[in-house]
Specification:
3 domains; Rossmann fold; alpha/beta; two-stranded antiparallel ribbon
Amino acid sequence: MSLKIDTDHGRFKSIVRGRIKQNLKKYIQKGEMIGKQGKDIVSIPVPSIELPRFRFGHRDTGGTGQGEGDVGDVLQPGQVEPGDGHQAGEQAGQHVLEVDVTMEELAEMLGEELKLPRIEPKGKEQIENVKYRYTGVNSAGPESLRHFKRTYKQALKRTIAAGMYDPHRPVVIPHRQDQRYRTWKEVVVPQANAVILYMMDVSGSMGDEQKEIVRIESFWIDTWLRSQYKGIEARYIIHDAMAKEVDRETFFHTRESGGTMISSAYKLCWKIIESDYPPSQWNIYPFHFSDGDNWSADDTGQCIAILRDKVLPASNMFCYGQVESPYGSGQFIKDLRESFPDRAHGQVVTSEIKDKEAIYASIRDFLGAGH
């Protein structure tokens, strides 16, 4: 039987979930919640929620429309009490409620709000993951798999059947024939794996604000893709005139300067794919973020060739996000769109990210294709 507290708790969770979904666009634009990320959960600040309830009292306790007066009388302002927000007081104000939300729930809300389609993994070949499942109980097996509860129950049955059980002195001693052990078997589970290859321009024209946009957007991309695949890996590449692979922390906090050669990042991206992620076994998602300022037209030509001949045939889709910068020319996204006018049948996705408010639409641009 369901307890009333369970019903109330479920109702409260539903209200909280609705409040989070209502403000999801605001949360997406801000990066504070990313810092509150745990292993499998995120703490999200929501306004204090008070469930509606009836309050009992006398009808003549005052209020608008009650008490002495005639029709047409002007209502006078009420007396202001300390703590009403009009002057300093010593009472505590409303507090923000920290709500723990699992990454799975967060991804589900993201998909619902942005109307994201489920991703269809590329290709038919999948990685096979071997798991061990306990399927029953046997009278023989290793001591490490001994089932204590089943063993005790078997010894108790034998003791009672032999007339040796004394309820006032309930001593049950298992014999060898009472021992019971868990049995198991190997189960081969097909597992669609994916890798995200993040590339970011860290040249002098990419400032802290641009990097913060990349950081926030990549968090939500991660959240969605991890909800679609059982196993996922992430690799990080930074580049100016040269590219190098780094860890996540370095990726989001590196300060560099100098020119930009985007082809260096694409060459390293292809090298990682070729050596570590066979396209027949992996779903591959390269994401590149830049302000669109490249060294030369010749280098842009190299980028187009690497994408067309190597990266695109191996990838589910290639995503390019151009972050607006006062120092960048913004030319590269135009070159991509000219080189792939039909966007390679939806495999090349581009998005212009002017500021944090544009992150919401950019995520939909990237993930709405469902590749």
